[in-house]
Design a protein that fits this description.
about 160 residues; alpha/beta; 6 helices; about 30% helix
């Protein structure tokens, strides 16, 4: 998957840094092992509307708690729940712990909405693993926007917290 991600970024003319490292499972581990100045550490959650089969990829800064009701209300839902491992594999061909916006490269169709934290969307640089927890890709937020736009994703940005 690393090559798939870097090939796609190359095809868009997106500059990135690919960092190799020991496997990390949590965002806290990632922050300790892969420190990049002026870069936002992110976590990605794959969720579904509790009352429908609508799925969402939520990207937050590593230190924010996921308010499932608040996030759901942004897209007109009452509450989110985590998608099952089976659905995650079916929709994005990744396992739990390997979810990131780069998993959209595996999406069949284009029906998963991206909900992204205001601070991530408006930061300077972001880092995500390329669906492989032994590597990290660092890109500018401007290039993250370019990547998401190239996929034609629907994006909902959370309000800025005061």
């Amino acid at each position: 998957m690393i090559k798939k991600v870097t090939d796609f970024l190359d095809s868009l003319g997106i500059s990135y840094r690919l960092l190799r490292h020991p496997a990390v499972v949590t965002t806290e581990e990632s922050r300790q092992i892969i420190h990049v100045d002026n870069c936002i550490s992110c976590k990605s959650l794959f969720v579904k509307d509790k009352k429908s089969d609508n799925y969402y990829l939520v990207v937050l800064t590593f230190d924010k708690r996921a308010d499932m009701r608040g996030l759901a209300s942004l897209v007109g839902c009452q509450k989110f729940e985590f998608a099952t491992e089976e659905v995650l594999w079916d929709k994005l061909q990744v396992h739990r712990g390997s979810v990131s916006p780069f998993a959209f490269l595996n999406e069949q169709g284009n029906d998963i909405t991206l909900i992204v934290d205001y601070d991530v969307w408006n930061g300077n640089n972001v880092k995500f693993h390329p669906c492989d927890n032994t590597a990290t890709v660092v890109i500018s937020v401007e290039d993250f926007h370019k990547y998401i736009n190239a996929l034609g994703k629907r994006v909902v940005v959370t309000p800025k917290l005061k």
